[in-house]
Amino acid sequence: MVPSVTTLFARRHPGHARLLWHLYVPVRQRLVMRRVATVESTDEIDIALLTTHGLYSIEVKSLYSSIEVRLDNCKDAYCVTATPVGQDGQLLTNGITIDMGVAQNTAHVRALRTELDGLVSPQRIFNVTTYANQCGFEMHAPQGFRYAYVTTTSDCPENIVEVICRIEQKVAACWTNAEVDVLAERLAISYTDSDGSKQANHVKALSTARPSVADSSKSHKKRAHKPKTKAQPKYQSRKSQFIDEDVRDYLNGDYED
């Protein structure tokens, strides 16, 4: 049985810690436009861990796959390869995919740093992606590359709690236990979803960002009668990339407590 992140921290983390689940943090640079309506976009953070050393944005990926982590060909980001495992325990090498969890969590961290500017130092918000499985995990790159960490819930040196403990051995404490509790309550009040409305708005923003098939068909017909225009600015393509990642994450339901 794969232990949950909650269980791991309860058993292993030596210090004071608070866990919050499913925070909906506004992305103020990203407003989703459709017709005349404006829908506020949010990033859904699976787990926020607060300790006396910092705030950890934890993206949890539940993939029944063997995970390998390397630097990409340009040596400027992590490349996470997921190889599915069949019912007989054999690796299905024809189904290998590149998982975008680290890039997705980078966007979450960016949103948190913007939202908490002046309250939490950017250097104290950590990017941690964890793969909740026991199908195999191999780390072929240094931890902390570009301030990101890739971990697992499996019992190995890259276990999420072990990695966080190593981080906290290198950086000094920045908050007292009481300050951790105050900040946790503030985040809970502002960003957790007590009545389901934040999740509903989150889904609405995602669906608004992806027009229906009928709308797309109409749009293509209109463009067919118009002369070519200049290419869209680069920031728009990046915006679409982030939204697509959010949609895939929500529809796949790849998170645990």
What would you say this structure looks like, in words?
The strands form two sheets. A five-stranded mixed beta sheet has the order 1-2-3-7-9, sandwiched between helices. Helix 5 (197-209) packs across helix 7 (234-252). It has 257 residues and is an alpha/beta fold. The chain has helices at residues 5-12, 101-115, 160-170, 177-191, 197-209, 213-224, 234-252; strands spanning 17-34, 37-51, 54-61, 65-71, 78-84, 97-99, 125-131, 137-139, 148-152.
Features:
257 residues, alpha/beta, 5-stranded mixed beta sheet, 4-stranded mixed beta sheet, 7 helices, globular, disordered C terminus
Please specify the SSE layout and strand pairing.
Blueprint: H1 5-12, E1 17-34, E2 37-51, E3 54-61, E4 65-71, E5 78-84, E6 97-99, H2 101-115, E7 125-131, E8 137-139, E9 148-152, H3 160-170, H4 177-191, H5 197-209, H6 213-224, H7 234-252
Parallel strand pairs: 3-7, 4-8, 7-9
Antiparallel strand pairs: 1-2, 2-3, 4-5, 5-6
Helix pairs in contact: 5-7
